[in-house]
Amino acid sequence: MDRPEWTRQPDLASRRAGGGVVWANDELFAEKENLIKPERPEYQPSTFGHKGQIYDGWETRRRREPGADRAVVRLGLPGVVHGVVVDTAFFTGNYPPFASVEAVAVDGYPSPEELAALEWTTIVPKSPLAGDAENFFAVESRQRFTHVRLTIHPDGGVARFRAHGAPVADLRLLDLDSLDLAALENGAHVVEASNMFYSSPANLISPGFARVMGEGWETARRRDDGNDWVVVALAGAGVPRLAELDTTHFKGNAPGWASLSGSVDGASWFDVLPRTRLQPDTRHRFPLPGASELTRVRLDIYPDGGMARLRLYGGLTEAGKKELTERFHGAA
Length: 332
Description:
Elements: E1 20-24, E2 48-49, E3 52-53, E4 58-59, E5 69-87, E6 98-104, H1 112-116, E7 121-128, E8 134-138, E9 144-153, E10 157-158, E11 160-167, E12 179-180, E13 189-193, E14 217-218, E15 228-246, E16 257-263, E17 269-277, E18 283-287, E19 294-302, E20 306-307, E21 309-316, H2 318-330
Antiparallel strand pairs: 1-5, 2-3, 4-10, 5-8, 5-9, 5-11, 6-7, 6-9, 12-21, 13-15, 14-20, 15-18, 15-19, 15-21, 16-17, 16-19
């Protein structure tokens, strides 16, 4: 099945990105927290707990009165949602026939009661669902949101909920003179990569440390004379001062060497970090004295292998600050 292009964007709701399910009106059969687990749902037949068959998802009891069930998700990466996935994997006779999604933007850390009192924006109207399937819904709104609310009509089970889109950082929480220019949560994104056989290159710039090898970027084994690479558009134009190349968990499959190149808007490329030897399972940190302004960085690994994280610490230029400011206020 062809997946929509927007599913290549990061899942803003994922637990791996810091998302959380802050409230659900019912979770008798299966816990609401399962909705945002980054792993694909699993199912083992004839595994019964004290409430019935165990499901890897969120499942509510059968309704005997009018109404609908709801769950509220705090986005780990606030931003513009381009599409949502309501995945009913393994729910066949107990999936909800319809779902709708609303969203809201709020400052601070509101309680579920405070969230309920706000005015929510519908981003997916009440729409039919298929059972045991990924249900894709494109979102037209280009507003920045911090929370989404999934409503199932009238009840049932949903395995996973994904909210794919573009993170938009809150300027009030950043020091624009000292930040990770390549961080997904600050607005950076992967432009292209030579290979993504084992895992997505977007993992490189995701929040936090990789817990396992699968949370990094790993390429297939090369059988030619070339090398693998990834290009990242930075949060804004900036001057890097420190690079971190993290091969944690990659032991027999770490790259032997790596280099960094920079560019302004994809024009000519220049050296940022020359080809440098790497060690397996190690956080490497390299000062970048005399680095120039750049808007994109290219990581080359030689010849192939895996990298857990790429960090590029520095400060935004005046142009970069203006870009980030316009992005935040334009989506507010």
